[in-house]
Amino acid sequence: MFSSKLNGIAILKNQHFSKEELLTFAENLSDRPGEIQDKLLHWEFGPVMEMKFDQLAQNYLFSDEVVPFHWDGAFYREPRKLLFFCQESEGNGGETLFVNTELLWNSLADKEKEDCTKVTLTYRTEKKAHYGGEIKVPLVQKHPSNGATILRLAEEVETHLNPVSLEISGIPNADIFYQELRKKLYDPEFMYEHSWQKGDLLICDNFTFLHGRRALGGNLKRSFMRIQIL
Ligand SMILES: [Fe+2]
Hints:
Elements: E1 9-12, H1 19-27, H2 36-39, E2 48-52, E3 67-70, E4 81-88, E5 96-100, H3 101-107, H4 110-117, E6 120-125, E7 133-138, E8 140-142, E9 149-151, E10 165-169, H5 174-185, E11 191-194, E12 201-205, E13 209-213, E14 223-229
Antiparallel strand pairs: 1-12, 2-14, 3-13, 4-12, 4-14, 5-11, 5-13, 6-7, 6-10, 8-9
Bound molecules: fe (ii) ion.
């Protein structure tokens, strides 16, 4: 069977969307019936998050720092798909990384798979942006649409701007286990790195993939509209 690390990601170049047009486009990508609130995840700022560098950021997402791998909605409600529309990007930095955890899982040896199924992860963070609290999740999960095995491994966030702590239970030598698996997230066999250009529209499956970003470096103009599709 044909399998690619990009299965579950769609990219369109040179797109033009107003905020209203993007909302309509995103709404049509939802399989759910009902009103816009049933189709798109709404936060206190609404369904569209404007992502750009903020010198006074209280949270690392809006700083120029690295964003470690995670999935969206973990502390609240998990959307099925994520839509990113790039409004500005200039030069190197701020590349978004996507890791296909279905492929990663399939590559593991039987013993590694056995260890993974024993693991529970506990994440904690203070609510300084739009999310926060404590969650406990099994590392190995099933994709709710296609039933494939996926991995829910968000990395610990070590920053002074709203850190996220991680506690691993279920196996001995949890730290070694975490470091080994974490290394695999960055293996180019499973990871895709997207360098942004203005007008890029990217849609990704929020269950198959974890995502993160490189530090912004000189690309402080990088800005997006991000919509989460239920
Ligand atoms: Fe995210």
